[in-house]
Amino acid sequence: MNEKISIIIPYYKGENYIHETLQSVYDQTYQDFEVIIVNDGSERSALDLIEKNSDFKNLKIIHQENQGQSSARNNGVKSATGKYILFLDCDDLIDKKFLDKTHQILSKNNEIRICYTKGKFFEKTDKEWVLQPFNTFDFLIENCIPITALIYKEDFEKVGGFDTQLNYYEDWDFWISLVEIGAKVHKIDEFLFFYRIRNTTDSLTNTSIDNSSRLSDNFFEIYKKHYTFYKQNGLDFHSIMSLIRENKKYKAKYYDEWYRKLIYKFFKPKKYHKIYKN
């Protein structure tokens, strides 16, 4: 029986991190896996050295012109031979028991099709990556599933992979597609995934996204694409407008209290000027 996990690593300018990421993979207690690195248009020298390293077995490296992470992940899955898929960015890490514990969950309950764990940031900060507990309504408003989650390859193929037309939120869109076809979600309450926030300013991981217009456009495309599912879960357009109106009413009442204004004015002046600038 094929219980292999295909680990797909999109690679872009990750020469300072990829060896550490691979080491976290090859230290796994669950060893039935293959690794597929998809080089998304980066210089090859670091990957050539990795390819020659005999410690990294069952490793395949695919080179493509720069097309973005979604394309890299999709192309990696095309070469995958495993029953399961795990996406791992080229600078992130997984605990040695990540594969073992997530595989146990999926293999014991066929209804669960997505399994992830608690996560922590590292390098620039070591705080917990706080992800809200999964429920469909809240998930459709804000994603709570990290890209590094174990899934079935057949499910990936069923929904057509990642939408390469999206610049942002493509992982969220992908998770929505899986949940939409009935995939159940499970979160392991252990810190087994580590998400790097780089110290360098040129990092793709922690580049500040200040283009709110493009973010909004991408979210709107996702909303339109999955509108029937949103509607089924009480998030049709009229309901969203009602939520916004109620939120504005609450804020207006909340911030209008005289004592709250006073506290903000003297103890939180920046927030005071932001809220009461008019």
TrEMBL record:
Entries under InterPro entries matching the protein: Glyco_trans_2-like, Glycosyltransf_2, Nucleotide-diphossugar_trans
Domain Glycosyltransferase 2-like span(s) in chain numbering: 6-142
Swiss-Prot/TrEMBL keywords: Glycosyltransferase, Transferase
Molecular functions (GO terms): glycosyltransferase activity
Cross-referenced Pfam families: Glycos_transf_2
Domain of life: Bacteria
Entry keyword Protein transport: no
EC number: 2.4.1.-
Keyword hit for Transcription regulation: no
EC class name: transferase
Protein name per its UniProtKB record: Poly-beta-1,6-N-acetyl-D-glucosamine synthase
Gene: pgaC_3
